[in-house]
Specification:
This is Type I phosphodiesterase/nucleotide pyrophosphatase. By secondary structure, the protein is α/β, with parallel strands linked by helices. Helix content is 30%, strand content 17%. The protein has an eight-stranded mixed β-sheet with strand order 5-4-6-1-7-19-2-20, with helices on both faces. Strands 12-13-15-14 form a four-stranded antiparallel β-sheet, with helices on one face. A three-stranded mixed β-sheet has the order 16-9-17, with no helix packed on it. The longest helix is centred in the middle third of the chain and has 24 residues.
Length: 464
């Protein structure tokens, strides 16, 4: 998900993946009939929330309409880690975090001097995006609040996602980083201010949906991305499938319906896709790996508890930790850290499900490259550094739900719905790879992502 309160944990808002053959890496040639594309992301939307909406007592008329009028995945297997920023970058590029470089929500900050800074800036993404592909195909593009969108080169009308403090100055920051004049023009047209970047409430989503509709009405972009944050926000603080989360999801369904109607008026032949970045699991305990790393002398702190140095450090990723070594090629240091992690894995209080090396999960690169990954058991949360002296396990506090676990967990499955001309109706695509979504959308708009790590999905024929 996106911005969350600083304590007890920053929001951390994703698969063990293997190499694909060269045939799968090839992207289909642009089709003869290209369509405008509207891509909507609902952070934290679980597949069963839509597939089983009626059985769960959810009123989602607009989302469930995709099940009859379009194609849908029964589940989407995400990427490692199952967090908002890595996953959204995979959704827009078709490659895994090890390739695109957005390997967490927050940037690597072992001395904690970046004031909880996130991977907001597009320059950190090393892969071609759907915005790039659309631009190369001569199409106009737009964005409303998609993660990792500050400074994207090929977005014609950009309202990027960024925040710092929640202070009113954050609006000035968005205004300065958006397409020049765009915020002013849309605010004048709508008669209201654009939402603060840190506003993750349903009201914030409602505001951004309105701005997206006005942007479509005024500019009719060929490809537009729109991101909704409120469901994830409520699932973190109340837990998944709670009355609060249900209310928010039903509200977002209305926003989706209004947005789709606006897009259809601008582009009757548009393809509409709804995605999510990860699933969700209820949580009750936070695991403070810093406790063990400080005791082992791998992280040093001063008398006030400020971190002063590190040889190896945890990097909290929601339901997992990346472990980064100051000297990755130091065999003695690596063995020392491995011994510590194995000892922790044997301690039931640590709630560790698995300890793997980065190479075991195809993650030998990154920004920076981790040396180990620690997957926690469902229900435990990876705590960032909260100060010295805390025990290994502490209550999860305000956080009642979490994601970021290894993507093999069924709870981490995400959503894909798509409808439009030429797309089979009532077609269950089964379980798909998240990396297949971007090349599929590129194909629909008559563009290409030649470096995507999966082939486009076949949306033209009903499953047997």
């Amino acid at each position: 998900m996106t911005a969350m309160p600083a304590l007890p944990f920053p929001s951390l808002s994703r698969v063990l993946h293997t190499s694909l053959s060269a045939a799968l890496l090839a992207c289909a040639a642009p089709q003869a009939m290209a369509h405008p594309v509207l891509l909507i992301s609902i952070d934290g939307l679980r597949p069963a929330d839509v597939l089983d909406a009626r059985a769960r007592g959810l009123s989602l008329p607009h989302l469930t309409e995709f099940l009859a009028d379009g194609s849908y995945a029964h589940s989407v297997v995400g990427v490692l880690p199952t967090l908002t920023y890595p996953s959204h970058t995979t959704l827009i590029t078709g490659v895994a975090p090890a390739r695109h470089g957005i390997v967490a929500n927050t940037t690597f900050d072992p001395l904690h001097i970046n004031d909880d800074g996130w991977f907001w800036y597009a320059e950190d993404n090393k892969a071609q995006t759907l915005w790039d592909a659309a631009h190369a195909a001569g199409l106009s593009t737009a964005n409303v609040h998609w993660p990792v969108s500050v400074g994207v080169a090929h977005v014609t009308w950009n309202l990027p996602q960024i925040w710092r403090t929640g202070h009113a100055d954050d609006r000035k920051l968005v205004r300065a980083l958006a397409t020049p004049g765009l915020v002013n023009d849309l605010e004048a047209a709508r008669g209201e201010a654009y939402a603060d970047g840190k506003d993750e409430t349903l009201a914030g989503d409602r505001n951004r949906a309105g701005f997206a509709r006005t942007l479509i009405e005024r500019h009719a972009p060929d490809f537009i991305t729109v991101y909704f944050a409120a469901l994830d926000h409520d699932e973190h603080h109340s837990g998944p499938d709670t009355p609060e989360a249900r209310h928010t999801l039903e509200g977002i369904d209305t926003l989706v319906g209004d947005l789709v109607a606006t897009e259809r008026r601008a582009h009757p032949d548009a393809v509409i896709a709804v995605v999510s970045d990860h699933g969700f699991a209820a949580a009750d305990t936070a695991i403070n790996l810093y406790h063990a790393f400080i005791e082992a002398g791998l992280v040093t702190v001063d008398a006030k508890g400020a971190i002063t140095g590190w040889e190896a450090t945890p990097w909290a990723c929601g339901g997992s930790f990346a472990i980064v070594l100051a000297r990755p090629d130091d065999a003695a240091l690596k063995a020392r850290v491995a011994a510590l992690l194995n000892k922790l894995a044997a301690d039931p209080a640590a709630r560790i499900a698995a300890v793997v090396t980065a190479g075991q999960v195809g993650f030998a690169t990154g920004n920076p490259p981790p040396s180990f990954f620690v997957n926690l058991k469902i229900g435990a949360i990876a705590a960032p550094y909260l100060g010295n002296g805390l025990p290994l396990a502490v209550p999860s506090g305000a956080y009642k739900g979490m994601h970021g676990y290894f993507p093999a967990a069924p709870e981490m499955r995400s959503t894909f719905l798509i409808a439009g001309p030429g797309i089979a109706k009532g077609h269950d695509l089964g379980e798909i790879d998240m990396r297949a979504i971007a090349p599929t959308l590129a194909h629909e708009m008559g563009a290409a992502l030649p470096n995507a790590e999966a082939a486009p999905l076949d949306l033209t024929s009903r499953a047997k």
